[in-house]
């Protein structure tokens, strides 16, 4: 295959075709997941509904935690395709296609044509990187922009005074600026720390010229601060403080109750990026056959990998996608190790083989058990193996299983062990079989298992939100956080444009401040209070979890409609 694709045009066309088939189909067959997916999609929907594309809004109020670039992409998609899950996820599917093209191009430049193709294949066949392109979260574009900036820094520092100096400085700054417009100041921190670590590893032998630094920052500032400058000009100078405060809160506190141990992201990458993650470990070995440019590139990407991994291990908030920038250096280094193994420059060690076999068995068993949930359901419930009441009620959901889903795990387990056996015998080209098996497993899980898992977790609530949206009822969650009430409830800005709302909002904000709560991030509390206490002209609906006690006592004005899969659905009727 690699010989057939030695022509650039053929290679690009092949990647576009395959990536489109991998990432675009079925992106709308599962509802968006709370919180992050629905959060960003709702911001985009409110842009479309309000026709206000200059500001990011949530609850039709200013939302300063994220810059607008990704939200603009989603809003554009919704304008073209309509407001839907597919529209919310399409920008990331497109990002998947572009990312594989970028990997091919960068891999070809940093090594050769074959390396670029293998890198794109490895990236697409690794679990978490693949799943992210099927999602509606912000990180795929953010990561692509950060990596692109680092790539041009790699180019420049390899030849800081050569013909690419002007171009690389401007492009490195430009892509870093786009990353800033996508997710905020974290972009500058990540690249800045990576530069420092690289120069330390290089013993400061690659210091850039002042001209490069000046051009880099001019490009970065003109791109990255463009929207911020407009907001300051409009009188929203506090937006900068909001961004900084948000980053500090993520670093110092377990934001959104997402905490975890220091090793959290190590485990996430080891399991979630299998089989690439084990090849990464092997890639740390030095090779006498590397060219100076290959050593230079490897040093840069090792710096990027460890900066991201250690930084987000220190950060108190632990969420899977926080370490997702690691996917670029991780898969590059995995590809590097694979080529070294096939070229017999590295050896397939016993520890590596045992590690592969152990993780394969664990993951295979896990996939098989997922596919056997319908067989195990009664046993799990009867023996009280789940301790959380809400999770127990979730698990009681009536979900259709064909009975063959366990085969996904079985095929993964058998095929992977077979390829590992062949690799152990010295047939290292069977490594590609590991990744093909991984790709087939990922695609099968997305099609046949993920939709069923969603039905256990949030489906009952999403159904209720949609019903409320169809009838244009007000809808809000009681004592738990959900953005599904907004996106699927299709909340309008009618409440927020009411003449009485500004004064009501000021009163509730004062209550929040008195209770040491941030009024800027508790718009849901304000809307809930409005729907409960103010005069309404049509039914207002509410959702609580079954673990919420004394609902009748605390909310006597609400009438319970029904309970389903851990959720309690209530309504307040208009007064006659």
Separate helix tally: 27
The percent of residues in helical segments reads: 55-70%
Low-confidence stretches: none
Shape: globular
Gyration radius over CA: 25 Å
Strand order in space, largest sheet:
3-4-6-5
Distance between the termini: 73 Å
Describe the structure.
With 576 residues, the protein is mainly α. It is built from 27 helices and six strands. The chain folds into three domains: 8-30 and 64-346, no CATH class; 351-456, no CATH class; 459-572, no CATH class. 64% of the residues lie in helices and 5% in strands. Strands 3-4-6-5 form a four-stranded mixed sheet, with helices on both faces. A two-stranded antiparallel sheet has the order 1-2. Helix 3 crosses helix 4 (85-110).
Task: Name the features.
two-stranded antiparallel ribbon; single chain; mainly alpha
List the helices and strands and how they pair.
Blueprint: H1 8-23, H2 36-50, E1 57-58, E2 61-62, H3 69-81, H4 85-110, H5 113-124, H6 127-132, H7 139-158, H8 165-183, H9 186-201, H10 210-224, H11 226-233, H12 238-252, H13 264-272, H14 276-283, H15 292-314, H16 327-342, H17 350-371, H18 373-382, H19 389-395, H20 406-424, H21 431-448, H22 450-457, H23 459-471, E3 474-477, H24 484-487, H25 501-514, H26 523-533, E4 540-545, H27 551-554, E5 559-564, E6 567-572
Helix pairs in contact: 1-4, 1-5, 2-3, 3-4, 4-5, 4-7, 5-16, 7-8, 8-9, 8-10, 9-15, 14-16, 15-16, 17-20, 20-21, 25-26
Concise synopsis of the structure shown:
This protein is mainly α. 64% of the residues lie in helices and 5% in strands.
